Amino acid sequence: MRIIAGSLRGKILVAPDGQATRPTAQRLRQTLFDMLMHAPWGGRALIEGASVLDAFAGTGALGLEALSRGAENATFIETDRLALAALRANVASCKLGDRARILAADTLRPPPGTGQTIVFLDPPYERGLLPLAVGALRKAGWIVPSTLLVSESGRLETGVHEDLILAQKVQGGTKMIVWREP
Question: Of all helices (H) and strands (E), which one includes residue 151?
């Protein structure tokens, strides 16, 4: 698994062994960032200088990709011990400690935060966690009006109001949805 583009293009990321952490596939990350860069509601200005939250961070691939492409800072929320070790190793190997903050916390009970430009949500599939996570992050101050949210879920999962969706893409068993907080 590698960073796809930007200042860290080609940088190899580590992932923990086992099935507990499911890193976002490179092809899906490429599709997502192409959408963010080229959509009428997106563009380079969306990512460059952004504050990003990578919730259910796992290896941190989404937040690290955003940092590589010019995001100002990223916060990563993760609870799994092995995923946290991989995440810390990835941030260190990318030399991003000054722009990355890792919180060993539960996304469903997050610490107070500040409004983010982009929030990436990649909860475990088929557990109905997406609406719970959005509600918890909204209540804690991470999601504010105009925050762009990006979720990765199983292709049959729901949880986003259809009228808010800006883009969606299905690849294999995975569905990526992009919407903006009203």
Answer: strand 148-154
